[in-house]
Write a structure and sequence with these properties.
D-amino Acid Aminotransferase, Chain A, domain 1; seven-stranded antiparallel sheet; binds guanosine-5'-monophosphate
Length: 262
């Protein structure tokens, strides 16, 4: 698979064209941003971990019948994905109150919601991804009612699966963000899961200690982001407990990869 021109660069990933018109390469960067780009940093090895964790989760989702854009992981930082027409909405799923909802509504952090809550944000960095109502989606034709019904069904299935998967390894799935896109299959439009699912896009707490194992370590200046993401990868069985892949090794491997690509 040949990497072509850059199609899109986001905060944490770059999408490149390939020699196949329906496929793209998704490259995971080490860049970390928060608060609508006001806080920025580079965290060596983050992209490598997110690539592996996202691959693992999307492959598992595929096995329970959720169609995703992932074709295969290429190397430490890249995946081959199906090119989709992205639905310009960030779908936020909350099981436990944390983050923006506690500030917005004055809910106590850690409150277990009586059922999963879906919130919608417009994918627009300039506007700071504003929260919108479902009705906005139809008024401005960002997606159809049929598409959103389908997306909601997929979301609840994904959430059920992910809660169980993380609970089984001693992690609480607090909340997460999903993105969906359209592809054409035999002339018919289909909705598939796109983007990534990783500690960058989820809130994950250790089930016993409630230690944060996600991007809040960066947002809240807690430090130890790479050890936390590595712990998630190890618990999911992606990195072996006894393996020596620690943050230093991940950094070396990722640097090696970058140098050798030039
Ligand atoms: P909140 O609305 O509380 O800031 O975020 C809710 C959940 O969605 C968190 O798990 C957060 O990581 C994820 N999320 C929301 N917006 C974004 C975004 O623009 N980028 C990333 N990486 N995650 C997001």
């Amino acid at each position: 698979m040949k990497r072509g021109k850059k199609l899109y660069e986001g905060k944490a990933k770059i999408i490149y064209s390939t020699n196949s018109k329906n496929l793209a390469i998704q490259y995971f960067k080490d860049d970390a941003t928060a608060f609508n780009n006001q806080k920025k940093s580079k965290i060596d090895g983050k992209g490598v971990l997110n690539n592996r964790i996202s691959e693992h989760i999307l492959e598992n989702l595929n096995q329970i019948g959720i169609k995703t854009h992932l074709v295969k992981r290429l190397n430490m930082r890249e995946q081959v994905i199906k090119l989709v027409e992205i639905i310009p909405i960030e779908f936020i799923i909350r099981n436990i109150a944390s983050g923006s909802i506690i500030k917005r509504l004055g809910i106590e952090e850690g409150t277990v919601l009586k059922s999963p809550l879906i919130e919608y944000c417009l994918k627009n960095d300039k506007l700071g991804d504003p929260l919108i109502a479902e009705e906005h989606i139809y008024t401005f034709d960002w997606a159809t009612k049929k598409e959103i019904e389908k997306v909601k069904k997929m979301i609840f299935r994904i959430n059920d699966f992910m809660i169980g998967m993380f609970r089984g390894v001693g992690i609480k799935l607090v909340d997460f963000k999903l993105e969906f896109g359209r592809i054409k299959v035999n002339g018919k439009k289909e909705i598939i899961l796109a983007d990534e699912i990783s500690p960058d896009t989820c809130r994950l707490w250790d089930a016993l200690t409630e230690k944060k194992l996600d991007k809040d370590r960066f947002r809240k200046n807690l430090g130890g982001l790479i050890p936390a993401y590595t712990e998630v990868a190890k618990k999911l069985g992606i990195l072996h407990e006894q393996s020596n892949i620690d943050s230093a090794n991940i950094t070396n491997l990722s640097t090696f990869k970058r140098k050798n690509k030039k």
